[in-house]
Structure formats: C-alpha cells, structure tokens
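Deliverable D2.4 — example input (structure tokens):
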C-alpha cells in the first residue's frame, strides 16, 4: 500500500450517464486549478495540497495515471462561475471528476489514489467510468491486483467498489486526518 491518502468521493450507482457518456482524458497541469477547487469542495477536512497534485501529475506514466472526466455542461447545471480556471463552459464541456492510480514499479500491484466526482454529476456513471478506466490500465500493465482505501463514512463509494469486485481487507483506524475517520482497505483480484 502507499503512503498517500487514497480516498474516494465516487458517488454513482453504477448507472449510465443519462446525459451522454463522460469523456475521459489524461489530466494535465492546466487542469489543476479546477481539480484543486473540486478537491477542496469534496474533501474539506483533508484535501491534497496544490503541491501534492502537481507532484503527482508530474510523475512518469510508468508509475502514475491521472484521468479527468469531462461532461456536457448542460448535464450537471454547472455555471461558468463554478469553473474557477476561467475556462467556463464555452466549449460545452466541464470537469465532472478525476481519478488517479499508482503503479508499483516492476510489480504486479496498483493503488487507486483518488476518485472524485462533482456532486452535480453523481448518479451518472462517471465514478464507475473512471474506476473502469483505472482497472483497464492496471490490467494493461500486467497488474494482478489493485488496492484502495475508502472512507468508512462513505457507504456510497464503498458500495461502488464492492459492485466492481473489490473486497474488504481490513480497517485503518483514524487514517483520515484531521477528522480521524477510519479507512476501509479494499483489494480487487484482476485475475478473476
């Protein structure tokens, strides 16, 4: 497992995006303004710092994968004022979520570091799509198992991971700081 805080705000029920599929693409440094704003919205007690995100996105693709989900602006009722980068919704797309995965160099394990979905897009399959893309990337790199931690007070995300074949391994007491919320450690066997 990693020393990073893997935590999830993936909050969809595994359903299809009613407004059309989200488009997934590699996260780039220019995305970080909006990513960090959403990070603070979803994880106000323990957000990653801008420096942490910048360091993660700068890691080589052999060890990290960060994805951004974009959706049609009209699907989630996102106002231009909610897009802090100033790019607005002029191109018809907004950031609906993001996710990150760490590959263990030379190994067969991967760790989901983060999945987050903008609340306006919950229930549209975006968290499930991001997770599916991370799992596909792990398989393509010959990983045999994927680990993650999920907040014990997030049953919706926990349910998503269970539906996608993750099993509970144990609990890390007080893992999320400063809130002291426990983390449920989960594992998915990619060979099954």
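Example output (designed residues):
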């Amino acid at each position: 497992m990693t020393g990073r805080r893997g935590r999830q705000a993936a909050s969809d029920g595994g359903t299809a995006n009613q407004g059309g599929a989200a488009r997934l693409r590699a996260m780039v440094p220019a995305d970080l303004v909006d990513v960090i704003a959403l990070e603070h919205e979803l994880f106000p007690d323990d957000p990653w710092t801008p420096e942490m995100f910048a360091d993660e996105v700068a890691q080589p693709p052999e060890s990290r994968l960060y994805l951004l989900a974009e959706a049609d602006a009209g699907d989630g009722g996102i106002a231009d004022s909610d897009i802090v980068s100033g790019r607005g919704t002029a191109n018809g797309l907004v950031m609906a979520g993001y996710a990150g995965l760490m590959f263990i160099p030379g190994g067969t394990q991967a760790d989901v570091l983060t999945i987050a979905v903008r609340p306006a897009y919950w229930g549209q399959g975006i968290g499930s799509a991001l997770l599916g893309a991370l799992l596909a990337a792990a398989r393509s790199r010959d990983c045999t198992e994927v680990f993650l931690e999920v907040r014990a007070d997030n049953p919706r995300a926990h349910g998503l991971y269970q539906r996608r074949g993750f099993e509970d391994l144990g609990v890390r007491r007080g893992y999320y700081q400063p809130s002291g919320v426990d983390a449920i450690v989960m594992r998915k066997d990619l060979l099954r």
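The first strand starts at residue 7 and ends at 9.
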